[in-house]
Every structure is written in structure tokens, then in C-alpha cells.
Design goal:
This protein is an alpha/beta fold. The protein has one domain: NADH:ubiquinone oxidoreductase Nqo5 subunit (Beta Polymerase, domain 2, 2-Layer Sandwich). Helix content is 17%, strand content 29%. It has 2 helices and 6 strands. The strands form 2 sheets. The protein has a 4-stranded mixed β-sheet. A hairpin with a 5-residue loop joins strand 2 and strand 3. The chain starts with a strand and ends in a 35-residue tail after the last strand.
């Protein structure tokens, strides 16, 4: 369990992030964990005077997540990364690389998202 973590709804992300900014917290990064068909858990990490605070939310498949890069410009890097690697639909990123910050067109789409793998047996194989 992470200390100083608050679970929030997607609709609260921008207001809670703005509160962190007003309270002079520094944006550190965001973490993302794929939950397969249930979407992803995203945790935003903030620091002030060596005290960490965290905002955790769940993003379902197909849901939109607003970018916090208008509040903390540096968040655009990790948000582009989560969008590209996990397939999260993050909207209004200050600089949106359109899915090509790290991956080329030939790369697997959303390689960090849990994929449902189906095994197809060849006819006649035992």
C-alpha cells in the first residue's frame, strides 16, 4: 500500500491536480498498470519538501482521461508514454505526439497493455 494516496474519479483529476499546484507540490511522474479488460490504474505522484502525495484513478477501456499538462507542462512526456504504450485515451496533451514518441508504425499497438492471447491449433497437429 502506498502512503498518502487518494483515490479519485476521472472527473476530479484536474481539480485535484490544480490543488497540488496551489499547494506548491512538484509533479514527479505518473505510473500506469494495465488491468486487461478492466482498463488501467493510473497514479500521479507529487512531492513537496520530501513528502510524497499520490492521486490514483481507474481508466476503463474507451474512457477519456484529461491531460494535466496544462497545469504541469512536464507531464506531457509521461502522458504521451501512457497513451502510446498502454492505449489510454488522454485528451488535450499540451504537445501530443500522436502515438509516435517512442514507437514506429511497425511496432505493436499499445505493447504494455495486457493482451488477450488466443492459441489457434493447426489442423492435424497434436
Amino acid at each position: 500500500m502506498i502512503e498518502n494516496m487518494t483515490e479519485i474519479a476521472i472527473s476530479q483529476l484536474l481539480s485535484e491536480t490544480q490543488k497540488m499546484k496551489y499547494e506548491d507540490y512538484r509533479f514527479v511522474t505518473a505510473s500506469c498498470v494495465s488491468l486487461g479488460d478492466d482498463g488501467c490504474d493510473v497514479i500521479y505522484h507529487f512531492d513537496k519538501d520530501l513528502e510524497m502525495k499520490h492521486l490514483k484513478l481507474r481508466v476503463g477501456k474507451g474512457e477519456e482521461l484529461p491531460s494535466v499538462s496544462k497545469i504541469y507542462f512536464c507531464a506531457l512526456l509521461v502522458e504521451n508514454e501512457m497513451k502510446e504504450l498502454f492505449g489510454i485515451n488522454i485528451t488535450d496533451i499540451a504537445v501530443d505526439y500522436g502515438g509516435h514518441m517512442l514507437l514506429s508504425d511497425e511496432e505493436l499497438e499499445s505493447p504494455m497493455a495486457k493482451q488477450q492471447i488466443t492459441i489457434v491449433e493447426k489442423k492435424g497437429a497434436k
